[in-house]
Design brief:
The structure is a homotrimer of 397-residue chains. The first copy, chain A, is an alpha/beta fold and 397 residues long. The first copy, chain A, has 2 domains: 188 residues, Rossmann fold (3-Layer(aba) Sandwich); 193 residues, 3-Layer(aba) Sandwich (Rossmann fold), CATH 3.40.50.1370. Helix content of chain A is 45%, strand content 12%. A 5-stranded parallel β-sheet of chain A has the order 7-6-5-8-9. Chain A has a 4-stranded parallel β-sheet with strand order 2-1-3-4, sandwiched between helices. In chain A, α8 links the parallel β6 and β7. Chain A is globular, with a radius of gyration of 21 Å. The first copy, chain A, starts with a helix and ends in a 7-residue tail after the last helix. At the A-B interface, α4 of A face α3 and α14 of B.
Chain lengths: 397, 397, 397
C-alpha cells in the first residue's frame, strides 16, 4: 500500500468541501466522489492509528448516541470512532430521560446538542419511521443552529434506519476493496445478496437494502434472492436498477437461492423480515398495539420456518465461482448447530470465513470516524497533513 | 459585548477566593458577589468556546453524577460541562451498584471519590431528603479528605434537590441578564412565578423555590401565584421577603394567576405538587409504602384537575406589560394540544417563545462549568488569562 | 518515603519485560518479582498523581468493562485507573447488546476490541465459570491479534472471578505494606482470614481465596477460619501450603474463629457462601434452573444463620496481638445494627477502623492502573522517567 502521505496527496485532489457540516443518512444521497472520499479517509485514519499517529482533532466535544434498538458492534464502533477523534460519547437513554413527558423531537434534539459535534442514531425497527426520525433531528439541529440556539451544527450519522445501514454497507464495501485489491477490481464481480433462514426475530431490511443500494454503484452484478413475500422496499429496487445502468453493472432478482449463488464472487446470505409484516408492525406500533406486535412476531417466525432450506451450506458454496466465493455477513450470524438448531449458515462455512468476517467488521470504526471527520473538518486533506506532521502519538509505549 | 480579555480583567477585580473547594448547593448560601462571579465565569467560558479556545483545565479526573430522578437537560449539561473542562463523567447508577447492601452514605461517598474532582447530584423527589443527602455527601468527602483518605476534596454541584435547583435558576437568571442587557436592567422588573396546570405527575417544588429565592436578590418584583394548597416551603418565602428588602425589590403572593401576570415583564408558569402532598409522600417513602405513594399520586392529579384554568394563554399574556412579557420555562413544558390535552401553556404562546426558551436552556452547561471551574481553581482570573494566552483550540478545523 | 525518581530508579533494576502484553488473571500465575513490580508501579503512579504529575500515556483508546455482577468500588476504581492513563471506559452491557442471539465468546471478544487497550471483567457468581470465561476471552483476542483482525492485543484485568480477586488482594497487600512500613515487615505477621456471619446473599469465595493465595507468599502466618462446610477451593489451599513453604510463612486451617484471632496482627472477617452450595448453584445455572438457584439461596441463608456467633466483636478483638490487630474488609461490610440486625462485625469495631478501611480501598485504583500500565508499556521505568521529565500536570490550578 502507498504511504499515508501519498494517500493524503491523492485525497487532496478530490472535491472535499461538499461533506463539511453534512449528515450521512443514506449512501444514495451521496455522490460517487463523496463515497470514494469516505473510503480513502477511513483508510488513512486506519493507517495513522496502525502507525501510532493520533488523528485526534477535538480537545473536547460530545458524540451523542441514541440507540433505539440493541447494538454491540455498531455501539462499540461508534464509541471507538468518537474516542479516536477526541469526542466523548454521551448516550441518550430515552428510558432515563424526561422524554416520555411527550416533548417534541425538535426540543430534545436541541437540548442535547449544546456541546454536541456528532449525533449517531439507530432506529431500525419500524418501516417509515427511522429515516423520518433522523431527518427530523437533522432539521431540528439545523434550525437550532440557524436561530442561534446552537453554537455548532452537529453532524448526524445513521447507525441503521428502516431504509439503509450505511456504516455497515460502507464497511462491507471497504472490506471488498481491500480483499479484491482496489475498487476497480469490483467491476463485473457478482454478489449474491440472499435471504437466509433464521429462527430469531424479524430482522430489519436495512442491510440487504444498504447492500443493493450501494454495490450497484460500482459496476457489480448484484443478484438479490429471497422467497416470495420477502421483498425489500421498492424504492431501493428502483434505485438499484438505475445505479447499475450508470455504473455498468446489473441488478437482478430471483426467488431461487441457488441461482443467486451460481458463479458468484461474493455471497451475503442473511435473514430479514417479510416487508408486509414490517409494515403491519408499524401500524401496530402506531396504535400502541404491543400485543399485536408480539402476535405478529409469532406468525412471522412460522412464515420463516417454511424456508429453512435457504441456508448457506457447503453444497451451495460449491455453486459459486470456483467454489470459493467470499462469504460475508454483518454479524452476528445464526449458525446452524452453534447459535441455533438451524440457521443462516452451516458451521463449517462460517468457520472457514471467520477471519475475513472479523476483518469485514473491523472497518466499521474507521468508516464512522471518516464520516465524523469529513462532517466536522473543512479542509480534510490539509488537516490530515497537519496531523501527520505534528506526529502526536496515540499511545506512548 | 466586551472582549474576553476585558471580561477576565473585570473578573480579576472581584474576590474570587471564597468559592475554591466549596460546593454549590443553594443559591441563598452564596454571597451576591459569588453569584456575580459565577455569571461572569459562565459568560467567559461561553465566549471562549464560541471562539474555539479550549478552557480545559484537567488532564484527567472524574465528574461523578448521581441522578436519583430522571433527567435529560441537566444530565447533558453536566456531561457537557465536565467534558469541556477535561473531566470524565462516571455515573453512579445505584441499581447496578452494591449500595443496596445498606452501606452508609459516608462510605459510598468516599469509595467513589478517590479520583473525583466533582460530584453532581439530583435528588428532588422527597421533601426534607435531597438537600440533607447532599450535605451528608459533602460532609463525608470533607471528612475523607481531612482524614487523608481522599487526595482531593471533590466539589459538589446540586443538580436539583427538594429545596433549590440552582443550575436551573442561575441559567434562567443569566438568560434574563442577556435578554435585558445587563443585571442592572433587572431592577424593578416584575416576574410572575406562577403555578400552572399539568396532567402529569406531582412535580418538585425546587424550580419555583429556586426562582423566588434567587430573583428577589436582584431588585426584581417577584410575584408568586398558585392555587390554595400549592404553597412552597415557608423557609423560602421568608428568605425571599428578606432578600427583597435588601435588594430593593419586592416579594408578593397571590392565589390569582391574572394578578401575577398583570404588567409582568417576565412570566414563568409551571406546575408543581401541593406542598402537603409532598410531605405525605416523604412519610410514605420513609415507611416504604410505595402503594401509598401511588395512591397519593392519583389524589394529587385529581386535585390538580380542579385548576385547569391556570394556563398561560394568549389571553393572559395580554395582561402582561405591553402584552409582551418574556415567557420562561425550565422545559419540558406541558403544552396544550401538543404534549397533552390540556396543560401549562397554550401552544401558540409556547411556539412564539421557542427560540428564547431554547436559549434559556443553553446557559445551563456554562453555569455548571463555571461552578466546577470556581470550585476547582484557586485563582480563576489568572487561570483564565493563562488559558487565553496558551490558545489551545477546542477543535481543529 | 523516597522521592519518585528514586522509586523509579529502584524499579528500573527489576525485570520489567515479562508483563508487557500479558493479562492479570490470577496472582498465583505471577512471579514474586512481578508482584513487587505491580506494587512499586502503583506507588509511583500514586505519588505522581499526588504531586499533580499526569501519568497519561494514551491519547485515545478504550478500556472495556464487562461486569456480570454488581460493583461500585471496583467499577469506580477501574474507571479511575483508565481515566488516569487516558483511556475511555466503554461498558459492555450484555443486556443492551445483541449477544443474547447466542454469538460466541470469541466473536464478541473481537468485535469489541478493535480499539481496545484493556478489558476488565467481573464474573464471580459461578464456580468453574468466571476464570474459564476470562481465559476464553484472552485466547480470543490473542487469536484475533495473531490473525490480523486486531491491531493491538488488549490486556485483560480480572476484576473478580470465581477463583481470585487480584485487584482486591493486591490493594489489600499494598495497604499492609504501607501500614506496617514495608513488605519485609510482613514476615511472621499473623493474619486471620476468617468467615463471618452475614444475613445477605451467598457471597463469592474469591476474596478469601485471593487473600490466602497471595499473603502466604510473603512469609506471613495465614490462618483460615470458617465453620464446617464453608471450605474454599482445595486448589487454593494446596497452593497456599506450597507458598508458605517457599516464603517461610505458614498456612493453617481451623473451624474456630477465636483460634484464628488469637495473637493475630491482622484480621479479615468476611462472609462467603458454602463451597458445596456454590457448586450446586453452578449446576442449577447450567440447567437454567433459576427457581433452583432461588431455593438454594434460601437454604444457604438458613445454613448461615447457624453461625451468627461468627462475628468480629470487641471481645474477639481482645484476643488479637495486644488487642490491636488491624481490621480489614473489602467493603461493604455487614455491620451489626447498622446495615443489618446482626452481621460480620460489631459497629464499634468497624467504626474504630473506618479510616484504615477506606485507605485500604484507596489503593485499588492504583493497583489497577499499575496492571494496565505494565501490560501496555514495554519499558515501564523508561516511560515513568519520561513522564516525570515532561511534567504534564494532571490539573491546572
Amino acid at each position: 500500500m502507498s504511504s499515508i502521505q501519498e494517500q493524503v496527496a491523492f485525497l487532496a485532489k478530490r472535491d472535499l468541501s461538499s461533506m463539511y457540516l453534512q449528515d450521512f443518512l443514506l449512501t444514495w444521497n451521496k455522490s460517487h466522489e463523496e463515497l470514494l472520499v469516505v473510503f480513502q479517509t477511513a483508510e488513512i485514519l486506519r493507517s495513522m492509528r496502525e502507525q501510532n499517529i493520533s488523528p485526534r482533532i477535538f480537545d473536547s466535544g460530545l458524540a451523542i448516541s441514541n440507540f433505539r434498538d440493541n447494538s454491540t458492534r455498531t455501539r462499540f464502533s461508534f464509541a471507538s470512532a468518537a474516542n479516536l477523534l477526541g469526542l466523548q460519547v454521551q448516550d441518550l437513554d430515552e428510558g432515563k430521560s424526561q422524554i416520555a413527558h411527550g416533548e417534541t423531537v425538535r426540543e430534545t434534539a436541541n437540548m442535547i446538542s449544546f456541546m454536541a459535534d456528532v449525533i449517531g442514531i439507530r432506529d431500525d425497527m419500524y418501516i417509515g419511521k427511522g429515516h423520518s426520525y433522523m431527518k427530523e433531528v437533522a432539521q431540528s439541529v439545523q434550525q437550532g443552529y440557524d436561530e442561534g440556539v446552537l453554537e455548532q451544527r452537529p453532524t448526524l450519522v445513521n447507525l441503521q434506519c428502516d431504509m439503509d445501514h450505511p456504516t455497515q454497507s460502507m464497511a462491507d464495501m471497504l472490506h471488498l476493496i481491500n480483499h479484491f485489491g482496489g475498487i476497480d477490481q469490483l467491476k463485473g464481480k457478482k454478489i449474491a445478496m440472499s435471504w437466509a433462514y433464521s429462527p430469531s426475530y424479524g430482522k430489519p431490511l436495512s442491510v440487504p437494502q444498504g447492500i443493493v443500494g450501494l454495490m450497484t454503484r460500482f459496476g457489480m452484478d448484484v443478484s438479490l434472492a429471497h422467497p416470495e413475500g420477502y421483498e425489500i422496499m421498492s424504492e431501493v429496487e428502483i434505485l438499484a436498477t438505475e445505479n447499475s445502468k450508470v455504473s455498468g453493472g446489473s441488478f437482478t432478482k430471483t426467488n431461487n437461492m441457488d441461482e443467486a449463488f451460481k458463479d458468484a464472487d461474493i455471497v451475503y446470505p442473511k435473514s430479514w423480515a417479510p416487508f408486509k409484516a414490517m409494515e403491519q408492525r408499524t401500524d401496530f406500533y402506531d396504535n400502541n398495539d404491543f400485543e399485536g406486535i408480539k402476535e405478529l412476531e409469532g406468525k412471522l417466525l412460522k412464515q420463516n420456518a417454511l424456508h429453512t432450506d435457504w441456508e448457506c451450506t457447503e453444497e451451495r458454496m460449491k455453486l459459486t465461482k470456483g467454489g470459493e466465493a467470499l462469504y460475508m455477513h454483518c454479524l452476528p450470524a445464526d449458525i446452524t448447530g452453534v447459535s441455533c438448531k438451524q440457521g443462516e449458515v452451516e458451521a463449517s462455512v462460517f468457520d472457514r470465513y471467520r477471519v475475513p468476517l472479523y476483518k469485514e467488521a473491523s472497518f466499521k470504526p474507521y468508516i464512522i470516524a471518516a464520516m465524523m471527520f469529513l462532517g466536522r473538518v473543512k479542509n480534510p486533506a490539509e488537516m490530515l497533513d497537519l496531523l501527520l506532521n505534528q506526529e502526536a502519538r496515540r499511545t506512548a509505549h
